[in-house]
Amino acid sequence: MHETPESDGGRSRSRWTREQAASIERRRGNIAPPAGAPELDPFPDLHVWDTWLLRDRHGEIADVNGYRLAFSLTAPADLLPGKRHDVAEIRCFYSADGKRWHDAGPVFDGGALGQRQWAGSALYDDGEVYLYYTAAGDEAADEMTYTQRIAVAHGGTASADEDGIELSGPWTHETLLTPDGEWYETEAQSRGMTYTFRDPWFFEDSATGETHLLFEANAPAPERPGDDEATAHRREFNGCVGVAVSESGDPLSWELRPPLLDAVEVNQELERPHVVVADGRYYLFVCSHVHTFAPGVTGPDGLYGFVADALDGEYRPLNGSGLVATNPPEAPFQAYSWMAFAHDEEVLVQSFLNYYDFAGDSLDAIADLPEAEQRERFGGTLAPTLRLALDGDSTRLRGTLDAWRIPTPDEPLPPADDSELPGGDA
Ligand code: FRU
After folding, report:
1. What value of ipTM does the predicted structure carry?
2. What is the pLDDT of residues 352-389, one digit of tens each?
3. Ligand 1: distance of its center to the CA of 289 in Å?
4. 294 CA distance to ligand 1 centroid (A)?
5. Is 215 exposed, middle or buried (0-12, 13-18, 19+ CB in 10 A)?
6. Contact between residue 165 and residue 158 where contact means Cβ atoms under 8 Å apart
7. Mean pLDDT of all residues belonging to the chain
8. Which of 8-17, 130-139, 273-282 shows the lowest mean pLDDT across its residues?
9. CA distance 200 to 174
């Protein structure tokens, strides 16, 4: 096994190793309760999936004249759920109480980069909205492509009155980052599953004042002389958490830096990386799929996490294995795209309801079901919010809140009820 982290100009890169990942298992404290069919679906005409909140530079959820804003990938609900990624469009929702949400409509009216827009993050700074997103697909191509680059839209403003929020342009769209081929794999270098270069996440470190953009990528892991076939194949699974810095703090000017963490020989996709700082520690969360683990390592669709004493690392997997939260074994694809954020003394985790009524162990089987069933088994709205306790290198689910529940600052939450949490392994 080749598990020595590569060295990046003096800094030794953190790695999620096969040995650590070998201890991934469902256990009490990491399994969400069965969610069942959506109890609350405020936008039944839309598929809603990856979602993020408008925040200020310090990571606080922004307050725009009494409203908080969420951005989501959306598609018309009559579309087959599996096709939604091909037409994803970013919409804005807003809420005054963090319970009842309203649709402010699609954010861009043309002009966005890429053939379609995938996940990102949103910064509210000096009254201006910066929307970081993934420009997916090459807009100059006739056919659909899977090129990914990190883009921003800026110049937009949010105005609020008693009728709600209006988000208006004109937006200026810019490509911010593309893979360099040394730290970050390009599409041409990719040997295995589709490469990734997406999901930008703004993070300013209050301890150092440094401004960062985290993203999902792949670290080049070419076949080496002497590699046997199995090792060469395992190295095709090379997910990493990428990072860029803005020396001046300017939200529009970024330079790539070496990855914060990689998962070479462990997993191909470390999705939607984001950080929660608690007790002076840096909790780095990613989402990943059962089907993106390398041969010989198994793990469910889940929220995985790592902890370090500084943003640069060195990172240790939470709970020894990295697994923080997953779905119950009878509904292993119930939720996905978890996003953790601090609330008071605990962490809340928002996600979307995926195939909540499907017990198979691979989503490939979904495509074989009649179309009506594919739609019926898919949530396409937000899942119940999870409550998570952090304790040093360990985490523990504490219970749930309603779907679409993003409590207002300082809002006291009811006592956590962990009796609904499944207890066992499977
Ligand atoms: C996670 C994800 C993101 C991507 C989006 C595309 O759910 O794969 O990485 O931005 O979905 O729909």
Report:
1. 0.93
2. 999 999 999 899 999 999 999 999 999 999 999 999 99
3. 11
4. 19
5. buried
6. yes
7. 94
8. 8-17
9. 13
263 or 162, which is more confident = 263
Q: What are phi and psi of 252, to 5 degrees?
A: -115, 0
Helices (H), 25-82: none
Question: Can 50 be counted among the known catalytic residues?
Answer: yes
Query: Does residue 216 have an active-site annotation?
Result: no
Q: Is 50 in the pocket of ligand 1 (CB under 6 A)?
A: yes
| Token pair listed for 373 | 């069933």
DSSP state of 331: S
Vertex 391: Cα angle to 387 and 394 (nearest 5): 90
CATH topology of domain 15-410: Tachylectin-2; Chain A (2.115.10)
Ligand 1 atom closest to residue 271's alpha carbon, by position in its atom list: 9
Rounded distance from Cα 187 to ligand 1 centre (Å): 17
Q: Average of pLDDT values for 281-305? A: 98
CA 161–ligand 1 middle distance (angstroms): 33
CA distance 231 to 195: 19
Please pick, among 138, 236, 269, 271, the residue that the annotation labels catalytic.
271
Ligand 1 closest atom vs CA 199: 10
